[in-house]
């Protein structure tokens, strides 16, 4: 029985790796001929635990840098509150910031599965025998099971799942189920790499105009993320960064003078009525992309792959998609609710936000991440 995974990013490779660890045959189809991997990625503790379950704990420890502490600061550099992530997650699940390309290489290393690229999928149709897949060259092939790991603008979701769009007024409802921005967060953001200006931990500065996050990825380099607060506009002109953050503290100004890689991207969410139809399912961002405020994209994707692999390994594939969704919905809904609460807090007047954060910030961190420290439901 053969599985096709559509998408060769983090979600697709993690799912393929989980399936092969359970001796399930799998082929990966990736539409791009190369994948440079983008910039970097912050992996909270549950992501680190997920990679360990894929057999990659030792390899991950060789990448990037551990994130032992978080600091939330005002635009004038006043420390609002801090979190000891080392103590919260423990030594086996210390968060890490790693280059995305290194993470993809780790997932692909020794992967006992066929990865075909460039191989575009243009349509998937559930059938009595599994799913009929149409490729970019016009060929059609039937697979026993298809996994859509093809991101926010998923072809598998658009052509095979066809779940109802979110209700009007819900965050993420503006563009339907195909990939939407949150109603309260900025429509776009900037991501970048830069020489480290002396930051030794996860640090965010937040003011009236925007939030500016820096995370060390090694001794010399930081990964950064910048967005408007309160749903403001983020211009595609890089001058927006200097206009918005030019009067922020010295580490921010030094980064603005030393940007190396710079990437402007939409902030998109996916909230669908269903993740499964017949023997077709969605994993990762294709199912439940969320704004990156809690850094759960890779974490939830890896967990998705592990749960799905356990279900398919038992050989009973009828109804596996529905069982997978039932197991995963609660955890994903928790992250979505936490994201919504964060977006509402970001929209508060800056004076009120800075007044409240020292009291509610640590509790919000614990409320969000504590359930994610515990094992996720499995078959």
CATH architecture of the domain at 3-67 and 92-181 and 268-347: 3-Layer(bba) Sandwich
How far apart, in Å, are the first and last alpha carbons? 20 Å
Q: Which segments are poorly predicted (pLDDT under 50) over 5 or more consecutive residues?
A: 163-183
Strand order of the largest sheet: 6-5-14-15-16-13-17
Class computed from helices, strands and strand pairing: alpha/beta
Radius of gyration: 20 Å
Could you tell me the mean pLDDT? 91
Task: Report helical residue fraction.
Answer: 25-40%
* Main CATH class of the domain at 3-67 and 92-181 and 268-347: Alpha Beta
> The CATH topology of the domain at 3-67 and 92-181 and 268-347 is what?
FAD/NAD(P)-binding domain
Continuous helix count: 12
Report on the biggest sheet.
7 strands, mixed
Q: What proportion of the residues form beta strands (DSSP E)?
A: 15-25%
Fourth-level CATH superfamily of the domain at 3-67 and 92-181 and 268-347 = FAD/NAD(P)-binding domain
Strands, count? 19
The shape is globular
GO molecular function: FAD binding; monooxygenase activity
Keywords: Monooxygenase, Oxidoreductase
Protein name: 2-polyprenyl-6-methoxyphenol hydroxylase-like FAD-dependent oxidoreductase
Domain FAD-binding: 2-314
């Amino acid at each position: 029985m053969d599985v096709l995974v559509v998408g060769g990013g983090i979600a697709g490779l993690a799912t393929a790796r989980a399936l092969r660890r359970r001796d399930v045959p799998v082929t990966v189809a990736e539409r791009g001929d190369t994948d440079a991997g983008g910039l970097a990625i912050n992996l909270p503790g549950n992501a680190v635990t997920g990679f360990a379950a894929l057999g990659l704990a030792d390899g991950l420890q060789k990448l990037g840098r551990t994130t032992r502490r978080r600091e939330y600061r005002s635009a004038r550099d006043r420390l609002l509150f801090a979190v000891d992530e080392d103590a919260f997650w423990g030594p086996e699940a210390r968060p890490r910031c790693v280059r995305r390309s290194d993470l993809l290489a780790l997932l692909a290393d020794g992967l006992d599965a066929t990865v075909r690229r460039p191989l575009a999928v243009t349509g998937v149709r559930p059938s009595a025998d599994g799913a009929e897949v149409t490729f970019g060259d016009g060929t059609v092939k039937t697979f026993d099971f298809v996994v859509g790991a093809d991101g926010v603008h998923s072809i598998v979701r658009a052509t095979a799942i066809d779940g109802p769009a979110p209700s009007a007024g819900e965050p993420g409802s503006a563009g339907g189920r195909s990939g939407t921005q949150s109603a309260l967060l900025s429509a776009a953001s900037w991501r970048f790499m830069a020489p480290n200006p002396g930051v030794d931990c996860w640090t965010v500065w937040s003011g009236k105009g925007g939030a500016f996050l820096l995370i060390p990825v090694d001794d010399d380099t930081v990964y950064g993320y910048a967005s408007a607060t309160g749903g403001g506009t983020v211009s595609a002109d890089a001058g927006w960064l200097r206009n918005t953050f030019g009067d922020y503290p010295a580490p921010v100004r030094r980064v603005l003078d030393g940007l190396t890689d710079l990437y402007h991207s939409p902030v998109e969410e996916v909230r669908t009525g269903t993740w499964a139809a017949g023997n077709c399912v969605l994993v990762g961002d294709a199912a439940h992309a969320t704004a990156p405020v809690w850094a759960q994209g890779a974490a939830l994707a890896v967990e998705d792959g592990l749960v799905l692999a356990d279900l398919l390994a038992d050989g009973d594939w009828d109804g596996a998609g529905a069982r997978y969704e039932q197991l995963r919905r609660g955890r994903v809904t928790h992250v979505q609710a936490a994201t919504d609460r964060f977006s509402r807090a970001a929209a508060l007047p800056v004076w009120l936000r800075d007044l409240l954060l020292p009291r509610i910030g640590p509790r919000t961190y614990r409320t969000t991440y504590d359930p994610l420290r515990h094992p996720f439901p499995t078959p």
